[in-house]
Amino acid sequence: MTSEASTLEVSGEKTAQTNLSPKEIVAELVRRARAAMEAYENHDPERVDDAVRALAWSIYKPENAKFLAEMAVEDTGLGNVPSKIIKNTRKTFGTLRDLLRAKTVGVIEENPERGMVKYGKPVGVVAAVCPSTNPAATPVNKAMMAIKGGNAVIIAPSPSGQITTAKTVEFMRAELKKSGHPEDLVQLLPAPVSKETTQELMNQVDLAVVTGSQNNVKRAMQSGTVAIGVGAGNVPVIIDSTADLDDAAEKICASKIFDNSTSCSSENSVIILDDIYEDAIAALTRAGGWRCTREERDKVSEKLWIDGKLNRHVIARDPDVTAKALGLAPEAEQSKFFMVEEDHIDGKHTFADEKLSLVLTVYRAKDFADAKRIVHDVLEVTGKGHSAGIHTKNLDHARELAADTDVVRILVNQAHTFGNGGGFNNALPFTLSMGGGTWAGNTITENLNYRHFINITHLVTTIPEDKPSEEELFGPYWQRYGK
Questions:
Q1: In this predicted structure, what is the pLDDT of residue 14?
Q2: Phi, psi angles (nearest 5°) of residue 14
Q3: 41, 157, 194, 260: which could join 162 in a potential S-S bond, CB 3.0 to 4.6 Å?
Q4: pTM score > 0.70 for this model?
Q5: What is the DSSP letter of 431?
Q6: Which residues pair with 341 in a beta bridge?
């Protein structure tokens, strides 16, 4: 490191620096990360789990969870404190459960019958690009997965969430130090965060994992570095004729209002079958929804998007603030979310698009086939590959929706925000980053998890020959078409 004067914040520390270029700044962070990996006891599963627990405790600790939640809302202006406390603790607890049950270093799998032994090894230095919507929970979530794989991680925060993420990294480093692990296993891209330094970070590491801006995802994919990006959400959910309407409405409400709809898993559209339409609307109203009039619908349309962009005075705001900003009736301020009924699907910056707000689009479907069509068309606007859902007692409808819809996740009778990223009552891994497959331009078709942070060496020994006859393999073809 040079000693010429200016200041570079590295992982919460201040170090004398010259006016370094982004390339030089990142090179120093990567050097420190590699040195930390050399000192990390990542050959020892117990020590690895000890480090993972340290990171989890840094945000799960009640006073830290509350402090970071309050800081995040103040820092970004997005979401609400109670939800962020839940996010900081619930996601961390669930992820810790998953990681402690997994083998990632040393021998991770043995299959003597197949003559196969698998060894888990680190991928190297990881860049974790994180969004403003989760400036505390996502950095810890990614760091836990990276450290579980024996890696070091450098976190690139969103500029609007940088203060919160810096404090989060400070907490993580403190717990690592307390438990005897190298602090530089977790570092922070220094302020001021820019596209240039974030890009340089993605260029120099061994793996870039990007959540948030689709521009960042695209640039990561073009960086030449192995990259994992996740797609945009815009969840459409069907309520069919067999659904428990009050149960569906309560779950949709709970999910929609969580953290004021900052989650990519939040329901953005509800498609209701014609024969139960009014009953379902009534249930949603009982759950806390406000049914906008046609005039109010036009006001929402005018205020939600300004010059082709979501209005920052509306997105992720409390319901009373949202109602006032949208120009709704005073009574609407007492509601929890706002329903806008639509009879057609337009393109970007319309009610079919992701809204990141307490506005919920409602479509009326003639029948189940029509409901599937609406889901398809909504996802073609935004969110293809991510998720969809259904409230039903007819599992054939759920299976049909899963078979016909190009998304990674179909949730049945669940609140999306509490199920999409893993739940204690479903089998999805806990995460804050959800891949959408090639439909979304992503390299993964599952929830981001520890498997994406390890390389695997396969030790292969011989087994009894497993070579079928030509007749076994070609016989059916020969019988149909001849030789």
A1: 44
A2: -115, 125
A3: 157
A4: yes
A5: -
A6: 362
Of 74, 31, 263, 290, give the one whose Cα is nearest residue 167. 74
CA-CA distances (angstroms) from residue 289 to 148, 281, 333, 334? 42, 9, 11, 10
**DSSP code for 80:** -
Question: Which residue in the block uniquely carries the two structure tokens 């839940």?
Answer: 86
Pairing state between β 116-122 and 106-111: antiparallel
- The owner of tokens 């480093």 is 173
Amino acid, single-letter form, for residue 274: D
pLDDT at 424: 97
Question: Catalytic residue among 130, 253, 264, 292, which?
Answer: 264
221 pLDDT band, cuts 50/70/90, is confident
CA distances from 294 to 283, 290, 337, 357, 470 (A): 20, 13, 16, 19, 69
CA torsion sign for 299, 302, 303, 304 is positive
pLDDT of residue 18: 56
Tell whether the model's pLDDT for residue 94 goes beyond 60.
yes
CB 36 within 8 A of CB 69: no
Full set of structural domains in the chain with CATH: 7-230+448-458 (3.40.605.10), 235-422 (3.40.309.10)
- Selection from 141, 99, 147 nearest residue 230 by Cα: 141
Rounded mean pLDDT of the chain? Answer: 94
Judge whether 381 and 347 are in contact, CB under 8 Å.
yes
Q: In the numeric block, which tokens belong to residue 473?
A: 């393999």
- Per the annotation, the verdict on 130 as an active-site residue is no
Task: Name the burial class of residue 146, with classes exposed (0-12), middle (13-18) and buried (19+) by CB atoms within 10 angstroms of its CB.
Answer: buried
- pLDDT-based confidence at 213, cuts 50/70/90? confident
Whole-number Å distance between alpha carbons of 7 and 61:
31
